[in-house]
Amino acid sequence: MIHQTQVGIVGAGPAGLLLGHLLHLHGIDSVIVENRSRDYVIDRVRAGVLEQGTVDLLIAMGVGERLTRCGLRHNGLYVSFQRRRHRIDLAELTGGRAITVYGQNEVVRDLIDARTGTGRPLFFEAEDVSIDGTDSSPVIRFRHEGGEHEVRCDYIAGCDGFHGICRQSVPHGDLTIYERTYPFGWLGILAEAPPSCDELVYTHHERGFALFSMRSTSVTRLYLQVPPDEPIENWPDDAIWNEMRTRMTAADGWAPNEGRIIQKSVTPMRSFVAAPMRHGRMFLAGDAAHIVPPTGAKGLNLAASDVLVLARALRGFYDQGRTDWLDEYSDVCLRRTWRAQRFSWWMTSTLHRFPDDGPFDLQRQIADLDYLTGSRAAMTSLAEQYVGLPSEVSFESAGLSGG
Ligand SMILES: Cc1cc2nc3c(=O)[nH]c(=O)nc-3n(C[C@H](O)[C@H](O)[C@H](O)COP(=O)(O)OP(=O)(O)OC[C@H]3O[C@@H](n4cnc5c(N)ncnc54)[C@H](O)[C@@H]3O)c2cc1C
């Protein structure tokens, strides 16, 4: 079966679904091709922190109803070291901007519902997805329910994440790869326990980093720094709670509430950028082009900013025949990406223990955190980056109101 469309989108994660809906709002046709099932995509537990700009974008797109109702707005966060928690008032330091805790799976669920409502095509469980013709006449090929499909389009959006095929289809030598892997990973758990604090707690400890977070008023999300290839079998539930208590219990007695662990996994950490984010008539967006360590909570938010820039560029092309915004796409996104890389690297290296760190490094980290929590200038710097730097393109120029 042959499908003719304007934009062929590979991947129905946040980047692909957001792009599809933004294009729909501009009257631009698209086909989304995803190799996993709908349930798998929705159930995948990942990000949970939305920057102010991402929240504003989802609301401006008309997909923020559940987010507004169920998202947990946080006006601040805590940094804990030497067993003391220090609050950083994000909203006060940034003129009222904040973050919202709302699971990535909820964002994806809302976007799939919105896509389904538009009646535009979204194929789940596509097999043997491949792309071709990115220099001149792009095509996406795949098999679905036994039939062969071909999507012929003007442009391809490679929104297929870090392990996808789009970036890998670019000829060797046409991409520059910047990469850093970290000598640790995060063991993350979801626990049936009401959060014992209304805001996130980032903890520096001699035994390693720990993060207290939440997904709802009844589910706590916690992370521990562990070796990158740590088998999850090494961590029975009791051992996890012991280590959480050791690292996080504060001098005032604060500690996370405990409960039944309903999900646990270990994720390695890396920083990665592929440049440029365009190859001929294919644009890479989100994790397909860049990965940040999760400490700065930037991955999902970067994916949202990429596709806002891309949607504006495609709207400019289809409405006015302009190609300058398409030509600028990669540079505009990479500038934000590198700022997010720098911030995520700084958060990661300040809060984690590295295997070859000695006593000097421990004291240096403590001094860094002491300065951070004692200086309004330093807290403002963290706050404005954590809630999200201003968007590169205005909502108005992207055809949305508000923001
Ligand atoms: C454990 C963990 C915690 C995280 N925490 C945070 C956080 O707190 N804050 C934050 O901002 N970010 C966080 N992130 C990062 C965030 O989840 C990602 O940046 C985000 O998912 C990127 O969205 P995406 O759409 O670009 O990629 P993805 O979500 O990876 O989506 C890509 C989609 O493409 C599909 N696909 C892949 N290959 C193919 C193919 N060949 N054909 C068709 N489809 C394909 C995939 O199945 C997937 O659905 C975290 C990530 C992990 C793993």
Q: Layout of helices and strands, plus pairs?
A:
Blueprint (H helix, E strand, L loop, with lengths): L1 E3 L2 E4 L3 H12 L4 E4 L4 H6 L5 E2 L1 H9 L4 H6 L1 E3 L2 E5 L2 E5 L1 H4 L5 E3 L2 H15 L3 E2 L3 E6 L6 E6 L2 E6 L2 E4 L17 E17 L8 E3 L6 E5 L5 E7 L10 H12 L11 E16 L2 E2 L2 E3 L5 E2 L7 H22 L3 H28 L7 H16 L1 H11 L17
Helix pairs in contact: 1-6, 1-8, 8-9, 10-11
What tags apply to this protein structure?
alpha/beta, globular, six-stranded mixed β-sheet, eight-stranded mixed β-sheet, 403 residues, binds flavin-adenine dinucleotide
Give an overview of the whole structure.
The two termini are 41 Å apart. This protein has helices at 14-25, 38-43, 52-60, 65-70, 90-93, 104-118, 237-248, 299-320, 324-351, 359-374, 376-386, and strands at 2-4, 7-10, 30-33, 49-50, 72-74, 77-81, 84-88, 99-101, 122-123, 127-132, 139-144, 147-152, 155-158, 176-192, 201-203, 210-214, 220-226, 260-275, 278-279, 282-284, 290-291. The protein contains eleven helices and 21 strands. The chain is an alpha/beta fold and 403 residues long. The radius of gyration is 21 Å and the shape is globular. The structure holds flavin-adenine dinucleotide. Flavin-adenine dinucleotide binds at residues 10-16, 33-36, 41, 46-49, 104, 126, 129, 159-161, 164-165, 188, 267, 286-287, 294, 297-301, 303.
